[in-house]
Design goal:
Elements (H helix, E strand, L loop, with lengths): L3 H8 L3 E11 L9 E7 L22 E3 H9 L4 E5 L9 H9 L3 E6 L11 E4 L17 E6 L3 H10 L7 E6 L4 H14 L3 E3 L3 H4 L4
Length: 210
């Protein structure tokens, strides 16, 4: 049980529930194949049934960690930082991104967009979920749209979401990992018929890295 003082610091984004942090190769989307330091923040109430990091959902099981410590750990490894979750925008990202910017970092976020966008970002990967849709403010700011395809109906959802982002936003369809054998042929066929889309794969899982 955390103290009321710690809870207030978390609410302000001065401390954050840190699930894990690691240096690896980006596996998905536009920056796949490039080295980056990942900061995974606990806490998410979007609740996708196929989520592969359900252990991130409960913020209370992840230790509140001072932003300064998170930044110090990150910059030892890389200037390219990816903030992910859980859903990182559950929390105020202003303090974390501000401190990373002071260190000259290039900061990316992977988000469902379900909460207000806080913080300063160089790249926004918006991965919307049907259960809890993005705020309207984030759509024009997204650099890439990544829609997870679990069934064929997700392609209709993908088009609905693509209609809301800017013309410069890069569009990705990514098969949900547990159903990839069925979805990959569907996605390949769809992208060939609709070439504004690109295929994204979870290449880090094929490489057997985090």
């Amino acid at each position: 049980m955390i103290s009321e003082e710690t809870k207030q610091l978390v609410d302000k984004g001065v401390m954050l529930p840190l699930m894990e942090e690691f240096y690896t190769i980006q596996g998905e989307g536009y920056h796949k194949g490039t080295a980056a330091y990942f900061i995974r923040i606990g806490g998410c109430d979007v609740g996708c049934h196929w989520c592969d990091v359900k252990e991130s959902w409960d913020a209370e099981v992840h230790p509140p960690t001072p932003v300064g410590q998170i930044v110090e750990n990150a910059v030892k490894y890389s200037k390219t930082i990816v903030i992910t979750g859980g859903e990182p925008l559950t929390w105020d990202m202003t303090e974390l991104t501000g401190n990373l910017k002071k260190q000259g970092c290039d900061i990316h976020i992977e988000t469902s967009g379900a909460y207000e966008l806080t913080g300063e970002w160089d790249w926004i990967c918006l991965s919307p979920k049907k259960i809890k849709l993005p705020t309207k403010e984030i759509y024009p700011l997204a650099n890439e749209l990544k829609v997870i395809v679990f069934n064929k109906h997700d392609l209709k959802f993908a088009e609905e979401q693509a209609a809301k982002v800017s013309d410069d936003c890069i569009l990705y369809l990514q098969p949900e990992w547990s159903n990839r054998e069925k979805m990959i042929p569907l996605i390949v066929d769809y992208v060939m018929k609709n070439p504004k889309w690109k295929v994204s794969l979870q290449t880090h899982k094929y490489l057997n890295i985090p």
